[in-house]
Amino acid sequence: MFRRLCVVMATIAVASSGFAPAAQAQPDPVQEFAITSEVPSLAELDAQIRLLVGTPAPDSVKAAQLEGGSRAVVVPKMVYRIGFFRPPRGSSVVTGPETHDGDRHTAVINASRQGAPTVQVEAEWRRIDGRWKLASKSLCNGIKTLGLPIPCNFQ
User: Fold this and answer.
1) How many domains does the chain contain in total?
2) Does 1 reside within a domain?
3) Residue 27 belongs to some domain of the structure
4) What CATH number has the domain bearing residue 69?
5) In what residue span(s) does the Low molecular weight antigen MTB12-like C-terminal domain sit (predicted)?
6) How is 26-91 classified by DSSP, letter by letter?
7) Hey, what's the torsion of the CAs at 40, 49, 153, 60, to 10 degrees?
8) If residue 142 lies in a helix (H) or strand (E), which one and from where to where?
9) What's the predicted TM-score (pTM) here?
10) Which domain holds residue 111?
11) Which of 84, 57, 61 is nearest to 143 (CA)?
């Protein structure tokens, strides 16, 4: 009798599990970040820069935002680790003036940190395979402006 009850309970448990709502994995907005609009907005470019230098996002996510790909990830990783331009002591914002010419777009990255003057880097983005990526030459400008000990060899 006990055995029959165990079999019935196991059958009910297995049968009812088919009716339980399945847990849906939600896409990670950081993993899915891409600027695909025809002309990128300042808000989109700003969000991309914040992702690159203000978050501990995985290397693969950062590489997808850079013209130089995985070879160039060392730059935003170092800037993030140093904490130059992320809260609580720093910040960044992308502003105009902007230019747009086909698959090239420019804007200005303004980055500041406590006790230091605001740094302005003229930056260029390039549309590659339908996504706007920060150009390698912009990373090189940033390396030079900040005086980072990184060779600019990812172009």
Assistant:
1) 1
2) no
3) no
4) 3.10.450
5) 39-148
6) PPPTTTT----SSS--HHHHHHHHHHHHHS---HHHHHTTBTTGGGTTHHHHHHHHHTTTSTTTEE
7) -90
8) helix 136-146
9) 0.77
10) 32-146
11) 84
SS3 12: helix
How far is it, in rounded angstroms, from Cα 131 to Cα 97? 21
Question: Which residues of the chain are modeled with pLDDT < 50?
Answer: 1-27
In what helix (H) or strand (E) does residue 140 lie, and over which residues does it extend? helix 136-146
Three-class SS state of 102: coil
Tens-digit pLDDT profile for residues 124-147 = 999 999 999 999 999 999 888 888
Q: Would 25 be classed as within a structural domain?
A: no
Q: Is residue 122 part of a domain?
A: yes
116: number of Cβ within 10 Å: 11
